[in-house]
Design brief:
The complex is a heterodimer of chains A (about 230) and B (about 750).
Chain A lengths: L2 E5 L6 H11 L4 E5 L13 E4 L19 H11 L3 E5 L1 H8 L6 E3 L7 E9 L7 H4 L4 E7 L3 E3 L2 H9 L3 E6 L18 E5 L5 E4 L17 H8 L2
Parallel strand pairs in A: 1-2, 1-3, 3-4, 4-11
Antiparallel strand pairs in A: 5-8, 6-7, 6-9, 9-10, 10-11
Chain B lengths: L22 H6 L4 H11 L5 H10 L2 H4 L4 H4 L9 E3 L7 E6 L2 E9 L1 H6 L1 H17 L4 E11 L5 H21 L3 E8 L8 E11 L14 E6 L9 H4 L20 H14 L5 E6 L4 H13 L2 E5 L12 H6 L5 E6 L4 H10 L3 E9 L3 E6 L2 E7 L22 H6 L11 H9 L8 H4 L20 E4 L6 E7 L2 H6 L1 H18 L3 E10 L6 H21 L3 E7 L3 E2 L2 E2 L3 E10 L16 E5 L10 H6 L12 H16 L5 E4 L4 H10 L5 E4 L7 H6 L6 E5 L4 H8 L4 E8 L2 E4 L2 E5 H17 L1
Helix pairs in contact in B: 7-8, 7-10, 8-10, 10-13, 18-19, 18-21
Classes of the chains: A alpha/beta (about 230), B alpha+beta (about 750).
């Protein structure tokens, strides 16, 4: 099993993800340049990660251009074949723009970029992440200007019925409330998966919570979930 | 053919004499009459308009340091770890072992931010990062130091919001964490805010790029963004007072594109270690003029540059516009002949302009052509600092307001009876309260290197991936102290920076400085400048922290007068192992709280005196350099011996604020007693220097006290579960204090 991390020109969490997977979780990692279009040595046992950053500057709409890159066409095909895909922050935005995940990430309700530790709690079931992260609050930082998840009522109903909402923002005791919602996101949603349960997107950065030197290991369980076959 | 060498055009082409500049034009460009005469002497003829424009920016205060260089030369620059000294390159280079070096620098973007806060601050961030990666180093941390007027003022709020958004916009996209900083609010910065940005980078020893050129016939490339009309004359703009008309100078403010800079960074990083590059210089102030002349002057060569080849954003740009444009995200690179294709391939990969615009010549003259005509022809050396640029010695006189400072007697201030109310008022002062409204808009964690996020310390701790080491970084300057006593204020600025690093477990290495002052032609302002630098120098020698570079920003004044003299110190320290890190937060209920140093009957210069008692003029607080050095050595020793659980220095707001800041992270409280013979207000809120609050496990106090070996110390009390008890009085619990502290600035901005 190996990870592939897509590097867009404006990705800036690509190396962080690489460090977390390689150094902290001892996983095999291959970096994938956005202009390349070869995923032939990846099987559905593997996992493709779309890292955080500002893929193409994001001056238009976050992730709106990235979905058209040659590598993304391959990633879409890979996902449609059942391969595991994780999008973090800008990666989540790209997955929504590419139609691999429903809904959209809008500008934070307070109109400001926000970077701080948040707590998230497992809200789904019957998927590779929910099955392993437990039910306690995880301290995972966010860093985004457009992290307010939005979808129409029908989509939200389907997400809830299918248990596709993976993470919700909560307090350190796991209580979900408006007071701890960092950006006005619908239903405190921090991360979701697709119906096929192989494509995952989340705004918080698990790769920033994997290293003993940073005194927070809460992200390890999330990334480790994708290393399992 | 891809790489047509510039037509070795028309060596005989003559400058169009009809373009001879007049004294009138020279003055309009900001040159003085004597400077225009000096240019004629250098050239042996009257310069044309293009050349005059080039001299006007290169000889501006911003580029030439003409009114400060005499005193900058006196700053201590030597040190056993210094690999590249101040002034030799874009930034200083300090050896940190294991084959690594740290490169760092601070720079101001005050005037652009006063006019257009968002772009002004954004391009300040972009510019300082470029200074670092033009040396081949990857930036790993950013810091900033900001000053604004009264926070209740709507204009201040507009500037604050714009500056913070601008810094976030650029830094967050560029992908370097903002790990530390400071924000102050004082009336003197109302019209002229200060925006100082610092970048810290890491490079392998032996793989740095130099801002140089040699090898006749070597090709010269311009890479990065296309050249537009933005920022023309920005350097000159930065060298004049801010007036009501300044808003009309909007074209002098540059516009930044962090995505372009991120690509430029990655492309430049790919050049490291390839041997393709002869020299590289970023384009900041004075654009093509500055980069070509500085690179050429370094080894005494020349260049032929064909401006027609420069990618432009708009058609028909004139030669002088291209020469002066301060469009961002551009670099000038001299390449070893024969390596052009490799160079081009790297920039193609990142979809960045990479255009051959000239070649290195025997010199010494730089010749700029446009559409086959010679547009300017002048010796590069005559343009640059250390070369032909003018140097002046300004006169100075002791400021009149010192009389008022010296006349103050703190006995005229009655001790307040309700100290809890005073404390609540101080906690809510914008200078004291949490700056989270500001720093949460910056990505502080990208790079997974910021070790302070979950373990707060006095300086930002940045781990170095692949090693056990970490850097401790800080920016510090209490400009009020510098105003009250420029020499002592200069001493304190450096000492506080060193103290923050020592309290974080680091060893101070070196400093960069951003010298923000008023108009140098005002003798009282120049007095502040000369004496603050003397204080800085003496402290740098004491702590063995040489000055590796920085920037001077004069003319920070408006109709209201000059800003406080603000020599912002950016200091970098080293932790050989992350295990040596020390944090500022109390750890356990029952731990014993001590203060290293002595309580003093001193409220001078304090936030309490200034903001709550409206005393604008008082002496600077108590400070003694030897006492400070002894304190820092003792703190380092205690950390090494693992004798303390937290360390936090006492600064603005005094002992009470320091205790509160240590208590809040883990929701703990503290119980302390007053000290006989010390005014209660001085005890709690005085800002006498050289004091550090530490906490010690209850069963370790004997070992701790034995290690002190006579060093002055006061046992203050104990860490509680959350109650705050002062002299036996119940001051409530930490959560309500934390709420006041966290939300004070947000409440003002929301009102």
């Amino acid at each position: 099993m190996k990870f592939g991390i897509v590097v867009f020109p404006g990705s800036n969490c690509d190396r962080d993800m690489q460090n977390a997977l390689q150094d902290d979780l001892q996983q095999e990692v291959k970096m994938l340049w956005h202009k390349d279009n070869d995923l032939s040595d990846f099987t559905t046992d593997d996992c493709i990660v779309l890292p955080g950053g500002f893929s193409y500057g994001d001056y238009l709409r976050c992730g709106a251009l990235a979905r058209f890159s040659p590598m993304m066409e391959q990633v879409i095909e890979f996902a449609n074949k059942g391969g595991k895909v994780l999008g973090v922050c800008n990666g989540f935005q790209i997955l929504c723009e590419a139609g691999l995940l429903p809904g959209v990430l809008l500008q934070n309700d307070h109109q400001k970029f926000t970077c701080k530790n948040t707590y998230i709690v497992n809200a789904g079931s019957n998927n590779i992440v929910s099955d392993v992260v437990g039910n306690g609050a995880l301290k995972i930082p966010v860093a985004h200007g457009e992290g307010r998840y939005h979808a129409d009522a029908e989509t939200l109903k389907k997400l809830e019925e299918n248990n596709q909402i993976i993470f919700k923002y909560c307090d350190e005791n796991g209580e979900i409330s408006d007071a701890v919602n960092p950006n006005g996101t619908t239903l405190n949603i921090a991360g979701i998966c697709n119906e096929g349960r192989n494509v995952f997107g989340m705004m918080p950065h698990p790769e920033r919570a994997c290293s003993p030197q940073l005194n927070n290991l809460d992200g390890q369980a999330i990334l480790r979930a994708f290393a399992q076959n | 053919m891809l790489f047509q060498i510039v037509p070795a055009v028309h060596i005989t082409a003559l400058l169009n004499i009809n373009m001879e500049a007049t004294l009138e034009q020279a003055k309009q460009l900001g040159l003085q009459e004597q400077e225009f005469e000096a240019i004629k002497q250098v050239l042996g003829r009257t310069p044309n308009f293009n050349e005059t424009a080039m001299y006007s920016v290169m000889w501006s205060e911003h580029c030439s340091y003409k009114n400060s260089i005499k005193y900058l030369k006196k700053l201590p620059k030597e040190g056993k770890r210094v690999m590249v000294a101040a002034g030799e390159e874009n930034a200083g280079l300090i050896d940190i072992g294991d084959g690594l070096a740290v490169v760092f620098k601070i720079e101001s973007h005050n005037h652009p931010s006063a006019i257009e806060p968002f772009q002004g601050a954004a391009t300040g961030v972009g510019g300082i990062h470029r200074d670092i990666f033009t040396m081949g180093a990857r930036p790993i941390a950013a810091l900033n130091s900001l000053r604004f007027g009264n926070l209740n003022n709507k204009k201040t709020q507009h500037l604050l919001k714009g500056v913070v958004k601008g810094i976030g916009h650029y830094g967050n996209c560029f992908g370097v964490p903002t790990v530390a900083g400071e924000v102050y609010f004082e009336d003197c910065y109302q019209t002229n805010p200060l925006v100082n940005a610092m970048s810290v980078g890491i490079v392998k020893v032996g793989q740095t790029f130099s801002a140089t050129s040699h090898g006749i016939g070597n090709p010269v490339f311009i890479v990065g963004a296309a050249t537009g009309k933005d920022g023309i004359g920005g350097a000159s703009f930065a060298s004049a007072d801010i007036t009501e008309d300044s808003a009309e100078q909007l074209p002098a403010v540059q516009v930044g594109d962090p995505f372009e800079e991120k690509k430029l960074l990655e492309a430049c990083m790919e050049l490291v270690g390839t041997g393709i590059v002869v020299g590289m210089q970023d384009m900041g102030a004075a654009g093509i003029s500055c980069s070509t002349s500085e690179m050429s002057a370094k080894e005494g060569f020349g260049m032929d540059i064909d401006l027609s080849k420069v990618p432009t954003r708009q058609a028909n740009m004139k030669a002088w516009e291209m020469l002066l444009s301060e469009s961002q995200e551009r670099m000038l690179i001299v390449v070893n002949k024969g390596r052009e294709e490799e160079m081009k391939a790297i920039f193609d990969k990142w979809d960045i302009h990479c255009e051959l615009i000239g070649q290195v010549t025997e010199g010494p003259n730089l010749k700029y052509y446009i559409d086959g005509e010679l547009a300017a022809d002048l010796p590069g050396e005559s343009l640059v600092l250390g070369g032909g640029a003018p140097q002046y010695d300004r006169e100075y006189t002791e400021p009149k307001y010192f009389e008022q400072v010296n006349a103050f007697d703190q006995n005229t201030i009655a001790e307040p009876t309700d100290l809890k109310t005073v404390a609540e008022n101080i906690v809510a002062q914008p200078n004291i309260a949490s700056k989270r409204w500001v720093y949460e808009q910056y990505d502080s964690m990208v790079g997974t290197a910021n070790a302070s996020t979950n373990n707060p310390s006095d300086a930002g701790l940045v781990r170095l991936h692949g090693t056990d080491k970490a850097l401790a970084v800080t920016v510090d300057c209490n400009s009020r102290y510098v105003f009250l006593n420029p020499y002592v204020g200069g001493l304190i600025a450096v000492s506080e920076a060193a103290r923050n690093i020592v309290c974080s477990g680091g060893q101070p290495l070196a400093i960069t400085n951003c010298l923000n002052f008023g108009n140098p032609y005002n003798p009282e302002v120049y007095y502040q400048f000369v004496h603050a630098l003397k204080g800085m120098s003496d402290a740098c020698i004491q702590f063995d922290t040489p000055v590796t570079g920085g920037n001077v920003s004069f003319y920070n004044q408006s109709e209201d007068g000059p800003v406080y003299p603000t020599p912002t110190i950016g200091m970098v320290g080293l932790l050989d192992h992350m295990d040596n890190a020390m944090t500022l937060n109390f750890k356990n209920e029952g731990d014993v709280i001590y203060m290293l140093g002595e309580s003093r009957n001193d409220i001078n210069g304090s936030e309490y005196l200034f903001k709550l008692n409206n005393v604008t003029h008082s002496p600077a607080p108590h400070f003694d350099l030897q006492e400070e050095a002894t304190l820092q050595n003792k703190v380092a020793e205690l950390i090494k011996a693992k004798a303390i659980r937290s360390a936090h220095d006492i600064t603005e707001g005094g002992l009470f604020i320091s205790l509160l800041e240590s208590a809040m992270p883990n929701n703990l409280g503290f119980a302390i007693d007053y000290k006989d013979g010390i005014r209660k207000d001085a005890y709690l809120f005085g800002e006498a220097q050289s004091r550090v609050v530490v906490s010690v496990a209850a069963d370790q106090t004997a070992a701790f006290e034995a290690l002190l070996a006579g060093h002055p110390v006061e046992k203050l009390g104990t860490v509680t579960a959350g109650a705050i008890m002062i002299g036996g009085d119940n001051w409530g619990t930490v959560d309500s204090w934390k709420n006041t502290y966290d939300t004070a600035i947000e409440k003002v901005l929301a009102s």
